[in-house]
Amino acid sequence: MTRLPSLFVSHGAPTFAVEPGRAGPALAALGRDLPRPKAALVVSPHWMTPQPRVTTSVLPETIHDFGGFDKALYEIRYPVSGHPEFATQTVELLRDAGWDATADPRRGLDHGAWVPLLHLYPEADVPVFQVSLPTSLDADGAYRLGQALAPLAGQGVLIIGSGSLTHNLHEVFGGAEDVAYATEFSGWIRDAVVEGDHGRLRKALQSAPHARRAHPTTEHFLPLLVAAGAAESPRPSTVIDGGVTYDVLVMDAFLFGAASGSDTEARVQ
């Protein structure tokens, strides 16, 4: 069975659903190039709980967990199936790794999941379930969470950490005169990803240039570490250039590893 790589996506603002920019077509191309997953598992900062929870619904609803945007965004539905079998297995994997995980049969998909999936799998033909982000998580904990989920990749599950490579909302809505910091921070992260230096990634919020400005809070960076932790090995890794929106939201995605026995890594560069 093909072992899938893991993926980090920058999901941007909710408007990414209707304003694909550079990142939307890049994710669509990636979705076509990757081997077809049996399911996608998404970890998003828009669902945080004290301990991990896992969605086990058969038909997860589309959650519009944002306000103040054009009404067209609230009319979008992502009519995808869930995957209760893989979700139940995920609860057991997390418990075996020491997490106090529980099933959640009612929770739908937040916009950190369905917005990028609109581009990655526009036909909504890959079942999706979510794992919540523990509220007390730090960088090392996020990496360990990914390691606990990693066995699913060998069963055909695409593990996706959905966050944001930069996430200073004050500057998104209030404007910023000097925006070079965003590309300096993201460039440092890109280098660590390409070099396979996961130790450096885990220290990024302390060591990377402008880290505090790029991430005043940590929750949108931690899904990157979940995806890195879920990888079979630190290399190969691939950058999917998503450009920049709102001057300071870097929309890059990272693919950690190539599908075993495939030429996927060569095709998505």
TrEMBL record:
Pfam families: LigB (PF02900). Keywords: Dioxygenase, Metal-binding, Oxidoreductase, Zinc. It comes from the Bacteria. Residues 36-233 form the Extradiol ring-cleavage dioxygenase class III enzyme subunit B domain. The keyword Transcription regulation does not apply. One of its GO terms (molecular function) is ferrous iron binding. Its EC number is 1.13.11.-. Signal peptide: none annotated. Its cofactor is Zn(2+). CDD domains: 45_DOPA_Dioxygenase. InterPro entries: Extradiol_dOase_DODA, Xdiol_dOase_suB. The keyword Zinc applies. Belongs to the DODA-type extradiol aromatic ring-opening dioxygenase family. This is 4,5-DOPA dioxygenase extradiol. The lineage of its organism: Bacteria, Pseudomonadati, Pseudomonadota, Gammaproteobacteria, Chromatiales.
